Structures are given as structure tokens and as C-alpha cells.
Amino acid sequence: MRGGRLVRRRIMTAGDGGADALAVDLPTGVRVACIAATDQQVFIADADAGCVHRFDASAGTWTRIESQAPAANAIAVAPDGRRLLIATKTHQIWQLDLRSGAAKPIAGTGQRGLEDGVAAAAEFASPAAMCVSTDGRRLYVVDRDSSAVREIDLGTHYTATIAGRGVGEHGRVDGDFQAARLDRPEGVAAVMTAQGERLVIADTGNRLIRVVDPKARTVETWADLAANGSHGPSDIAAIAAESVMAAMVACGDRVASVTGDGRIREVQDEEQGVTMIDARAGEPLDLAIGLAGLAMAERSMLRLRVSSLPNGSPARMLAQRIVSGPICREVRIQIPASSVHDGARWVVECESLCEETVEVVAASHSRWLVAVRTDNPAAPRVAMLDRSALG
User: Fold this and answer.
1) How many CA atoms lie within 13 A of 180 on its CB side?
2) Contacts of 331 (CB under 8 A, 6+ apart)
3) Burial of residue 127, with CB atoms counted within 10 A of its CB: 0-12 exposed, 13-18 middle, 19 or more buried
4) How far, CA to CA in Å, does 136 sit from each of 20, 85, 106, 132, 317?
């Protein structure tokens, strides 16, 4: 998936690895195409520079990896942790060796179509999202233009079609793999349930969440987002425990959670009025976001984003920070000195996803409009915005 929406999904699903939260400040100047993550690493495909940025949580450092692969629609970390799998805009799946930087296609001719086969014999049509199977042996891919779900054997590189008939063949049908139809899917997640592995599909054109049972070879509708007034889902993350499954779904600018019975809950969207803060002109300022009242969870993700709001000009992002894992009571983000001046206006956004239980995934979006005063030379270097005062 693309942009910040994939940031939300991948960091959330990676954040289940223990007591240390993974906090990531995105590199300056990077325009995010898509993101993948493990417990200790984050990978960003740069939409402009033809490279991948890797963040190592143990060292706290970014590394730039040059890539000869075409521009990416989606990326996933291979089970061995040494390769990055890339769904490209040239209708292929590539792999990037993270040690040597060598890149090569592993599936797809580069022609737009729907053909099965080994390696370059296969054809894809705008692969939009992918995920590794729960046993690490297969890569699941959703083809947007052919409304298809594909699987690639990571040992043999053989591509097989699970559901889908061909480019432009869209529909809305549940049933076995031969009969089932989707409409331009854009998200996929694999999850292991008590009944076996399931694929959860963001069926974007139909505004549905579909569930694929690879063993029974069936596709079923789990939740109807259209009935809830939501946009078509563009990204998805799923979790499961025992016989219960839950998912977090990105729908346009909003996020919804879907629980085991297909019930849909919209994001809690909280908006605050203007907040005045004191700062020292020309010096960097830390904005501290108080998170009292936010659910504590092992699986969680929080994104802070600060944008300028100049009169008569488009907003410009000043800073962004992503935190995953157990959320603390406060998280900070630094505003560059060049943006701290009297009369400056910022929009501060705080998005959070927290797994309270496997049946309840809390989502919220808080927004502040901040006005800056710099007439106090003794102004503190940290300004607090308290989320607990919202809603």
C-alpha cells in the first residue's frame, strides 16, 4: 500500500515484541511510497529516490539501501529477514538483498495480465498489497486491476491464482475459488486462527471485508463497510486469538475496527480548538503529547504529525514521528527552529491504534490547532498538549 496508510498498518502489526517501544522519526526529505516492519526494523521505500531506508531499533540509526527495483506499490520483509519483497508498478514482484543491495524480479513478465506459472512465466496486474503467510512459505498478493488474490511459493517462485478471472473482471460473489469475485482489492493480511490460516482482504471496490480460507478454498464476506457509510477499505491489519478474529481497516481518511461478529466501529475523531503555546523564537521546540486515558496495549501504534498552516498557502509537514509497541504516558516530537516564530500556526495530529482485547481495537484521531507566541524570553523548551482533555 501507499503513503501513510501503510505506515498505520505495518507498524501496528509489528508492535508485539515485548517491553521496548519502537520509536521512529522519519528521515528528512523522504516521500514515503510504502512501509514494512519487523519487531526491530522498519523499511521505507522512497517514492522519489529509488532506494529503501532501513531503521535499526537496536542502534537507533537509519541506513540507505540503493535499489535497482522499479517503483514500489507495496513491500514485505521475507521470512529470513535478509530480503525485502517488492510489488512494483511494472506488474512484477522483485526481491532486494538487504546485505548486498542486489535486486532481481522473482515473479512476473512485466506485462499486465493474469497468468500463473514459475517466475517470469507469471503475469500480474497492478499488485497493490501483499503479506507473507503465517508459516513463512508463501507470499500472498492482491492484484488490483484483475481483482485477484494470488499466492507465490517462496521456495519455487511458482505463482497460483486463488480467486479472480482476469483484467477488468470484477464482481461481488462469495463462494468457492472458482465462483468468487472481488472488486479491485487493495489490502491483504494473513492471520492464524484456531481453524487455520485466514486471509483478510480489503475489497475496496465493493466496500467489503472478505475472508479467504485457503484450505477450504472459499471466499466469504465478513463485514459490509458500505452499510456503515464508510469509504472503500484501502488497507487492513488482522489479529486473532483462539476462535476470535479482529481487524483494523483504513477507509479513506478514517479508520474502522471490525470484530469477530462483523461489527464495525468507527474511529473516535477528537478535535480541539486553538491552543496557544509560548516558545523561544528561532530555537527548536519539543511538543509533548500527554496520552492519559489512552489504552495501554502490547499491540499499538501512534503517529504524530505536525504541519504548518500559513495564510493562503498549502499546509507543509514540519515533523512526523511513529511509535509502536507499548505506549507510554507521553511522547514528544521536535519542531525545527526555522519553523518556530511569532504568529506561526501548526496543525498537530495524533493517530493511535491500540488492541484492548482481541475483540476490541480502539482507534482515535486527535487534532490541535496551535498558535505560537514568542514574546516571552523565558518560555520553556517543551510545550505540552494533553490528549486527556479531548473528548
Assistant:
1) 25
2) 23, 288, 289, 291, 302, 304, 321, 323
3) buried
4) 25, 13, 16, 6, 37
Q: Which of 219, 222, 218 is nearest to 246 (CA)?
A: 222
Question: How far is residue 110's CA from residue 39's CA, in Å, rounded to a whole number?
Answer: 33
Task: Say whether pTM exceeds 0.70.
Answer: no
pLDDT tens figures, 321-369 = 877 666 566 788 889 898 899 988 888 887 766 555 444 455 566 778 8
Say what the pLDDT of residue 6 is: 27
Rounded CA separation 209/228 (Å): 12
pLDDT tops 90 at residue 142: yes
Taking a C-beta distance cutoff of 8 angstroms, is the pair 368, 335 a contact?
no
Residue-level pLDDT at 156: 95
Backbone angles phi, psi at 47, to 5 degrees: -70, -20
